[in-house]
Amino acid sequence: MREFAALFARIDESTKTSVKVAALAAYFQTAPDEDKLWTVALFSGRRPKRTITATKLRVWAAEAAGLPDWLFEESYGIVGDLAETIALILPPPSGQSDEGLTHWINRIKTLSAQDEDTRRTGILAAWDVMPTAERFLFTKLLTGGFRVGVSQKLMTRALAQATGQEEAVLTHKLMGKWTPETTTWTNLIETDDPDADLSRPYPFYLAYGLDGLDELGPPSDWNAERKWDGIRGQFILRGGEHHLWSRGEDLMTDRFPELAQLRDFLPDGTVIDGEILAFADEMPLSFNALQSRIGRKTVPKKLLKEAPVILMAYDLLEHDGHDIRKLAFRTRRNRLKMLVKETPDTAPIRLSASVPFADWDALATEHDRSRELHAEGLMLKRKDSPYLAGRKRGDWWKWKVDPLTVDAVMIYAQAGHGRRANLFTDYTFAVWNGNELTPFTKAYSGLTDAEFREITAWVRKNTLQKFGPVRQVTPHHVFEIAFEGIQASPRHKSGVALRFPRMLRWRKDKPVSEANTLNDLKTMLATYG
Amino acid sequence: MADVLTFTDRGIYCPAGDFYIDPWLPVDRALITHGHADHARPGMRSYLATHAAAPVMQHRLGDDARIATLDFGEVRRIGDAEVSYHPASHVPGSAQIKVTVKGESWVVSGDYKTISDGLSEPFEPVACHAFITECTFGLPVFSWTPQAVLTSQINDWWATNAAAGRFSILGAYALGKAQRLLRTVNPDIGPILTHGAIENTNDVLRAQGIALPDTIRVTPETNVKDHPGALVLATPGAMAQPWARQFGRASTAFATGWMALRGVRRRRAMDRGFVVSDHADWDGLNTAIRATGAEKVFVTHGYTGPFRRWLTDQGFDAHVVSTEYSGEPAETAEDTI
Hints:
- The complex is a heterodimer.
- Helix content of chain A is 36%, strand content 24%.
- By secondary structure, chain A is of the alpha+beta class.
- The longest helix of chain A has 14 residues, at 17-30.
- Chain A is globular and about 75 Å long.
- By secondary structure, chain B is an alpha/beta fold.
- Helix content of chain B is 23%, strand content 24%.
- Chain B is built from eight helices and 19 strands.
- Chain B has helices spanning 54-61, 147-163, 177-184, 196-207, 236-239, 262-268, 282-292, 304-313, and strands spanning 6-7, 12-14, 19-21, 29-31, 46-50, 67-70, 75-78, 81-87, 95-101, 104-108, 130-135, 168-171, 192-194, 216-217, 231-234, 251-255, 272-274, 296-302, 317-320.
- Chain B has a seven-stranded mixed sheet with strand order 7-8-9-10-11-18-19, with helices on one face.
- The interface between A and B is medium-sized, with 34 and 27 residues.
């Protein structure tokens, strides 16, 4: 565990990408295969299952430290991370251990089959042979909350440096359903067989936000289509089986059973990149309709009828079993068009239509129509571009509509967790309803660290009341809140719910009296809801 | 019997002697525990501090400040009170102030730590009836890295950077922390550059006989490239300013007790965080309080709420007192601390 803890410390304490990648690459060159495999798994979000509740852990840690529960809770409130709190309050270890990462993960896995006393003894014994940094990681793995400040992209870059393989090839190898229990380092990384797993998706190609139309060159080089507001997905049909992957590499096949029909209409060896959309009468339904389907493992018939989904097809990645990502977009798209054309109208698939335009002005006019078409903007793709892996500049751009905004008053503040522990970063905002302030949304992001510090100092001095961790503050500060959509919501006092709310600006120039009103929100609901 | 000390909106007050301890508003007579800006404030008609604390105070408060001095352990009678100063091990010259009236003794801790830092006079427990203590780090999550481990951590970091031809910029408060670090590091690794605010304090302390390794003050005329691989001691504020850019792609680190918390460490966005504080950690606070034998404990700045409750659970008659001391600032870069 020592080597893994040292790696984690190097990554965690540096803000420099080069330092992180170098530390990872060095680790991949020296660590044992099984530890490397688990490291790749952890850094790509494949965590061991939680085998113990957080409540048990905090009780045992407080007992071992000889502290009352309330003092543990106070400490946790300040530290903002359970595993870290435990690691810090425990008495110094009485022994040490040379066991590696895989050993401790295996120990964690055996816990599920043990009775409570055995688990307790085992965990206390483990804590007692680890210095703080290792304890912290072990406890993070125990609570199932392991996360690290390095993207999968950086990890893959380091892996490429260490193994001499191409980054895009490695990215592809790391996709899909594997876990350290189902494969080995040799099979996953060293053996060159990306077809080993029929369900394995290709890495998604992601676009950056458009900087400006001027640098794009001739409009005729580009294809425009709507940017649909659903769930990006990759539909895979191989060996008679189909799989649907999300961009976050979640398998969503069973959540959208209607897409199983596509097996009857598409040829085997087909992989399509598209958007899952709730769709009726040849129009996308609001994201709200799709929301009712997200998170459901099984779908009742009623919901299938109310919010039927389709695959809005963007791109073809595999055709007749061949990886065609290197072909030009226009070629891939033509083949996709042929495939979709041969499916009946009742099949839940559509081709995402091109938006024709003669010049950039005409495209801007189309962009303005986005909201009325339930789209969140336009996508621009260079006609001769290959399908790349990950977020890349140059060939694909997203051109999103401007967010909706309101000016709102901050009325509650709460401290964040992790990096934001000790800082008031989570706020509740209100708008005027007559002479009263009615809360309508929370927001956590959009301000700089310096602004969060400034507000934190202000909150400490301007707290009216405390409700547990939540502080009611003097209504004084106005913020411009941006959001992507607005829906009616009977569950909220304000009657509305926002999509992706965030703080766009701290309006220090605005007095509280000039904040927006609930009527303003209702007008927005009527227009955009 | 009347209380030996009372808590007023100007500061901690002794009615029997008509003086204040570390007041935050102007008063006639101020007894000062140590020279940090939240304890030794300007505008007092007269000050009383230890011999060792006085030079820095004079430097910071100006030539006009009237500062009388006394020795550690020396007993002074002021009105009906007897006063003596005892080492607090916070910074050079820092004191706990003991006030005795009619046989009852109260002690004001000021800021203190219980471990020896190789610079300040070692902490001395003072028996008393009531103890007024800070609790900046009054939670069980704070446990300081032993000085020997810390020393090798900092030296390794500096040596690695020096070998790679990089500067090592280490952030520390100008009075106390900076000099403690100077006496901790191994000066054979390379040259040591200092920010002006730190070097000013170094000058004062050297003049009073405190030995510090050789340092080079960074001035606008300094060409820092003449000192490759140097350790650069900077105030926290200076690290965020254009001043720090002259060192190019340096490795940055910060030395404070708050570095014990990962959230703070990551927010600071430094390459390294060294857990080092001139305040007592959890064990230090508890040990110090028990050693006084006091039944009554007043906690001033820090995690006062939980710490008071903990002390009450331990059988002390514990109270929270609201003061304007800031301890070790976690978020703001107050260079004067």
